[in-house]
Amino acid sequence: MFNNQNIQRTCKGRIYPLIANSDTTYPYIVYKKTDIQSVISKDGLYQDNVSFTVTVVDQNYNTGCEIAQYVREALTVSRMNFMDGQKLEDCRMVSIDEQFSDNVYVQTLIFECRISL
């Protein structure tokens, strides 16, 4: 998401964990983990199943939907290796919720992924 040119072009780096700054301008993105379930075998911990949300907030409905699509495309991957040896496997969007609140459009995308440790 941070390296996606379309997201950077439209959000101009306004991507925040948990909560946006109070003086943030639109559009912006907020992401957060919502659940982690560890998978343990006789050999120990080997995988985390992670759920997280990415919320796109904008004053324009169509632009917000466009950014949400960019987010979906950026995060829907089958495999990705991290520098610490962990592997992201099968990240996919499982749901989306739309709202209109405080005169802005809110698109909340819900993702699930597996991380091999």
Given as residue ranges, the uncertain stretches (5+ residues, pLDDT < 50) are: none
* Count of runs of 4 or more consecutive helical residues: 2
Terminal Cα separation, in Å?
22 Å
Choose one word for the global shape. elongated
Binned strand content: over 45%
The total beta strand count reads 6
The protein's oligomeric status is: single chain
The profile of the biggest β sheet is: 6 strands, mixed
Indicate the percent of residues in helices.
Answer: 10-25%
Structure commentary:
- This protein is an alpha+beta fold and 117 residues long.
- The protein has one domain (5-116): STM4215-like.
- It is 19% helix and 56% strand.
- It is built from 2 helices and 6 strands, in the order αβββαβββ.
- It has helices at residues 5-11, 61-75, and strands at 15-17, 28-41, 44-58, 77-81, 87-101, 104-116.
- Strands 1-2-3-6-5-4 form a 6-stranded mixed sheet.
- Strand 4 and strand 5 (87-101) form a beta hairpin.
- It starts with a helix and ends with a strand.
